[in-house]
Amino acid sequence: MRPSPADLLRDRSGASAVEFAIVAPLFVLLLCGICVYAVWFLLAISVQSLATESARASLGGLDDAERRALAQAYVAAHAADAGLPSTRLSQTIDVDADRTRVTVRFDASDHPVMALKNLIPSPPPVIERSAVVAAGGGAP
How confident is the model at residue 113 (pLDDT cuts 50, 70, 90)? Predict the structure, then answer.
């Protein structure tokens, strides 16, 4: 026996499947966004930490050239520890008599999680952070 149109309007079987079909894609996109931004923030914190610690490492230098060399050596030695491949990393070190500024740039455009950038509004692919330390106890 075939159900009447009135019976079909009252029938609620399958309503959950329709609701799931509407909500699931949005939920998956939300999860993708959470993952992309979580990894991006992790990379940004790693870049900032590398800049800060390399600037701090430069304090042991007796002159400008030695401070620059200490900062460069720290970045080279600890980039992999921070999860940042050195091929995607660049640094700028400005040293003068009063302070040392270390700027670290990381290109995250080839990072696997950035493959989702076409699905959601994504963060910038280049992360740049800097740190300044004063030499001799003066203000930066």
Answer: confident
Given a contact cutoff of 8 angstroms between Cβ atoms, the answer to whether 71 and 102 are in contact is yes
CB count in 10 Å sphere of residue 47? 23
d(CA 91, CA 110): 18
Q: Give 41-67 pLDDT, tens digit per residue.
A: 999 999 999 999 999 999 888 888 999
The whole-angstrom separation of Cα 117 and Cα 32 is: 9
SS3 101: strand
d(CA 10, CA 16) in angstroms, rounded, equals 14
Structure tokens at 93: 């070190």
pTM for this structure? 0.80
Q: Which two tokens stand for residue 66?
A: 């030695």
